Amino acid sequence: MWNPLKILSIYPLVCYCRIGLLGFVLCVSGCSTYQHRYPVVPDILKSPYEQKGELPSDLKDVAIEVHKSDHNENKAEVKTIQRISLANALDRALAENVDIGLARAEEQIAQTKDQVSKGVLLPVLEFSGGAARTDGRVQGSFGELRDVEFNTYNPQVAMGYHINLGSQIHKALATRRDLDFAVLQTLHTEQRLLLRVIELYQNLALSRIGIKIAEQLVADSEQFVRIASTRTALGVGLGSEVARAKAKLASDRQQLVQARNIWETSSVRLAVVLRLNPRVLLEPTDEKLVPINLIPSPETWKVEENVRVRPDIKAAVRRTMAASHQVSAAWWDLLGPELTAEVRQIYIGDRLSSGFNDRTDSRLLLSWTFSFDKIGRINQRKAEEALARLNLMKIEDKAFGEVQIARQEIHAAMERIRLAKDGLEAAQSNHHISLARFQAGMAIVLEVLDAEDARAQAQLDIALSIVAFNLAQVRLLTAAGIIHRDLFGR
């Protein structure tokens, strides 16, 4: 009689086998499940300065004002200006940047592939049914011919399993490693994006400072033209001094135009990363550019410990492990048996209204299939594993170099700030003295012009040094693989 539940009588045995197999897979692969998307900061990266939250005393009072835009500063073309903070820029980048979206899409694809690979390990449940009608002459089993007329109804239900078990287990483990790789690559993309946005934001602030310096140069040159003109009118100056002062003024105005162009270029680059309207000029909300305190004592760090938490290195390790499992799967494809197991419940009847007769067919088969393409696939997987290992070596070498370079850049930038601070004080004093000497008729025009340029260069040097110091710390955090959003406020 029709009894679909009869096939379920073998289900407990199959279920126990599957639970054991899945348990093995999950135990092996579960160690790579990440409960935290960001690695823990190793103790080796903690310094006394970081614990106290203080900069060296000679860097605390170093600051340079960020120029705030005047909407009438460029009367030829009035553009919309949007002020943006670093925190807002970072949040928008993590939410809107296309590279992050692509990385997360790849992670989603890897998750679905992992689900597919685990689904292959489960048995297949099949339902089928058919109806047929025979009307006419047929030949029976012993050769008789006769005319018949009948209907046949044939519903079936089956549970089957066809798999190379060893190969599929290794493929499932490889897919799990690929999922780990995708998760770590997403984290690596986020960290590199944080570095990119901070670099662009610091350059934006630097460009605004450049405008302020250029405007100050123009103002100083205009003042100097007036002084030189007055001296010439009084007969104590030369006409060449006025001409030279006007030439300097024209040059400074060109530098101001170039400074504004650099600001607009920096704004567009940041807007593209943040997916904002590039026609709207961005302006930092920071009032001053100051040295930040992230990791100001790098001399105690050990490079080997730093790079171990880098997500791209961990991702390369997972890719190598996945390639190794693919090699094992290829060997199992060649040498391992294929298991075919099936239990099928078949029902047959000549009308739908009456009962059905049934029978149960069961079969278990082990088979081996040899083909030369499987040997080629083994060699292919071995080559892919060798490539993955070489790529891991390349990333490790790059990481060691990035950490060491960033450490050296921090030391150099700290020293540059100290020297630039002294240079700015000297340049400002020199400018005041030179201008006073020129007004008293004791200095030539070139001395004043050189003093103006020296002061402007000193201001630019200290701004460049602060930016270099800040970015060197951020690059070191990125090179060590421990940079994350919360380090930069909300």
UniProtKB/TrEMBL annotation:
InterPro entries: OMP_efflux, TolC-like. It is found in: Cell outer membrane. Coiled coil: none annotated. GO terms for molecular function: efflux transmembrane transporter activity; porin activity. One of its GO terms (cellular component) is efflux pump complex. SUPFAM superfamilies: Outer membrane efflux proteins (OEP). Keywords: Cell outer membrane, Membrane, Transmembrane, Transmembrane beta strand, Transport. Pfam families: OEP. Gene3D superfamilies: Outer membrane efflux proteins (OEP). This is Outer membrane efflux protein.
